[in-house]
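Exercise: predict the fold of this chain.
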Amino acid sequence: MGIPRAIPLWQRILFGLCAGYVALLFVITMLLTALYVAFCHWFFREPRRTAMVLKGYRVWMHVFLPLAGCPFRIRGKERLKGRGPFVVVANHRSFMDILVMTPFVPGVNKTLAKKEFASIPIFGLIYRAGSVLVDRKNPASRAQSYEAMKEVLRQGMHMIIYPEGTRNTTTEPLRAFQDGAFALAIDMQCPVVPAVLFHTEKILPPGAGFYFRPHRIELHFLPPVPVQGYNRHQVEQLKQQVFSLMQQYYVQYLQQRH
């Protein structure tokens, strides 16, 4: 698909040019980050390796996002600092979400991520270093990734999951959640921290092609949802509780802003 017809021609041209600048900026900063990640890969073991990699990610995004015209604001990060591990669940509306969530979740963390992107040259090195990879179409891969996520939590790291399963390209605040994140939280008895991202879909609209519109990004962490007393028969209950919290917060916050 090309850029949606609702976007005026002047914006197509302007933000197409902007995309060229941002792509160049991304490649240059990515190459520097990849060198650092390769160093961490060879000289550190888990969980120290991931902790060091995240330091590089945070420097990268603190440079890249402002230079790309995307200032960011984080609210509620004190809810994770020095605590956990948590299963952090976030809404997913844009590829920008991945660039924001991994570096700006306080503490050491990994993200459940699609295996396909790991094969991209250079970027794949960075992508793999901060992720638990999964091929969603392969039952064996899903089972292996679930065990890998358990190990991440056992090592004291947070696990970031996008429970919608894929980007939300609808007009609804959220897509229906899948069970995995909530089954994991119950199995490991780790609280769930809902995280709500705002405005990333304005930067990289779905189906917009070569297009980048600078805009502020906001990441809000809601209070942890405890799972003590929950069992596997209550996955649906926990899932719907978190879904309702995130949807209500998303809608109310945007209404207040307008």
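Check your answer against the key: The chain has one domain: 9-257.
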